[in-house]
Fold this protein.
Amino acid sequence: MGLPKEVTITEVCPRDGFQTLPGEVPTDVKVDIINRIFECGFKQVEVTSFVHPKAVPQMKDADEVLKRINRPEGVTLRALIPNLRGLERAIEAKVDKVKLMLSATDSHSLNNANAKTFDAMKDFEAIVKRAETTDVKVGASISVAFGCPYEGPVPIERHIEICKRYEQLGITEISLADTTGMATPVNIKLVVSTLKEKFPSFHFSLHLHNTRGMAFANAVAGLEEGIVDFDSSVGGLGGCPYAPNASGNIASEDIIHGFEEMGIKTNVDLDKVIDVAKHLRELFPEQIDSFILKAGKNSDLHIAPGKQKKIGE
Ligand code: ZN
């Protein structure tokens, strides 16, 4: 099928997951879960977002979390930032990479960032310049890239326009996010193939939500277009505070299991991921859900039922 042999899975539960939990998750619990995630072997973890505490109260202890987590060698710590203030906090907290937030549509952007898409990018030049004076790398996202809860389908011209602006800014690592799980394999393929052709120096990744059960099919569509970087969240935890009814990210254990069964290496320890998911399910039973938690792995073989006496025989 010409699929990649190896992919990188970025764990986003500490950001996308924790931000959607009702009430406050104690800092200690966050630190413990992030450290357990590191044990699984993820090479990149989205550890938090440096947003205004009033906008996303669940992330208000971001600076404290970063001070207290382990920092395993070779693991890239990524944080989401909305503006220059967020970058300053990220630099202070010594993250390796920041990801700029941006919505594909004006209406989602107005809800998420209080500005239309291109107005929300105004700060980006200053952010890139400031980051260049440090070791912090800058990537960016396009949220609701495959469908907006307020505007519906996003025309491909819109993605091209946004990527042109990113190109001018020198930002070439772009996360295409299906924030509300509206993507299909068909529009994943259209968007990814068009953008890869128009921006050959860019590195695109996929951030998929499983709102309508399409995430794994969409991931495979991405693989077929040569995508080798995917975000996922342990236990399927996640959502978007500004995307109504957006349910969780594709669960890390589901995407890792699926890819490994297809012969694609993820270099993550699936059993350890399942253990973290089980632990999360104990803490947040309402929010944790994945196929692998329910059904187990393909390799968890069952004892075949013996020849049983049938009733009435
Ligand atoms: Zn998300």
Summary: The longest helix spans residues 156-169. The chain has one domain: 8-295.
